[in-house]
Design a protein that fits this description.
19% strand, alpha/beta, Rossmann fold, 294 residues, globular
């Protein structure tokens, strides 16, 4: 049996190799997730898996809570994957990280394209938020102290679900219920027509009809937008356009470009022991602490 320090160094060496490979060739995101998840432990946390929030098999979320939590802030995390892939199971490292910070954290899956095109994944996000708020006290959370966070396509879902009043209203969620929105490397503003991601949207859809930066309500909650400065999957202009739309609507926003970070490393840095990759985790926690209820 190797000493813990040696095992930790080997895990970090393997992890860095996977992250570098994923960042360079763009084909190993799941490998990076599996390595991250294998390196974290949920010992000491309360974890409830596969909580249903709808009738579909993918309408499930895993809830990570600090042991003995009472009236804690609640975070709903939405995974990425170009709306065609990904799931909650690949993001255990996010749930663990935020629960260790003191937050009841639900990591959700949603229905995927092309079988389920926009707005299905956004509607699933709003529905998951409804069920999470309704059951928050069961997990030790405060239903009036809720944040919504997403990465990549999940950031699109999170921002659109909260900023476009339609989705919260249809799901039966009070529009004042969300304390803040956190978008990590989200594709909030681009012309998908002619791109592979067009499969996620209705055939006749236009950017004006579906992009979150076109749907900002003036009473939306504060936003944190984190942009990977070296992202070649979702270009930083998406964040810049979203920033402009939020400012125009008078919505408070914190906009941070993280130099040298890529599309995968920016979310990998949510892992507690990978702070050297960049400040994603500390920025997210600082935002929640600044906007949570006392």
């Amino acid at each position: 049996m190797l000493p813990p320090s040696v095992r930790s160094r080997r895990v970090l060496t393997l992890l860095m190799g996977v992250l570098v490979t994923a960042g360079l060739v763009g084909c190993s995101q799941r490998s990076a997730q599996d390595t991250l998840n294998g390196a974290v432990s949920t010992n000491g946390l309360d974890v409830v898996q596969n909580v249903p929030y709808g009738p579909d098999a993918r309408n499930r979320m895993d809830v990570y809570s600090p042991h003995g939590a009472a009236n804690a802030p609640v975070v709903l995390f939405v995974h990425g994957g170009s709306w065609e892939g990904g799931d909650k199971d690949g993001h255990k490292f996010v749930g663990e990280s935020l629960a260790r910070a003191g937050y009841v954290t639900a990591v959700m899956s949603y229905r995927l394209a092309p079988q389920n095109r926009y707005p299905t994944s956004v509607q699933d996000t709003a529905l998951a938020l409804k069920v999470l708020r309704d059951s928050a006290k069961t997990f030790g959370g405060n239903p009036d102290n809720v944040f919504v966070m997403g990465h990549s396509a999940g950031a699109f879902n999170a921002v659109e679900a909260v900023d476009n009043e339609r989705w919260l209203r249809e799901a039966g969620v009070p529009i004042s219920a969300v304390r803040g929105v956190i978008g990590v490397a989200g594709p909030y503003s681009y012309d998908f027509r002619g791109m592979s991601s067009a499969r996620a949207f209705p055939v006749t859809a236009t950017p004006d009809e579906v992009m979150p930066d076109r749907h900002v309500r003036p009473d939306a909650p504060p936003h944190l937008l984190l942009v990977a400065g070296s992202d070649r999957t979702v270009y930083p202009q998406n964040g810049e356009h979203m920033l402009a739309a939020l400012k125009q609507a008078g919505v408070p926003v914190t906009f941070t470009v993280l130099p040298g970070m890529g599309h995968i490393t920016i979310i990998a840095a949510m892992t507690r022991f990978l702070g050297f990759l960049g400040p994603t985790r500390q920025d997210v926690i600082a935002f929640i602490e600044a906007h949570r209820l006392p």
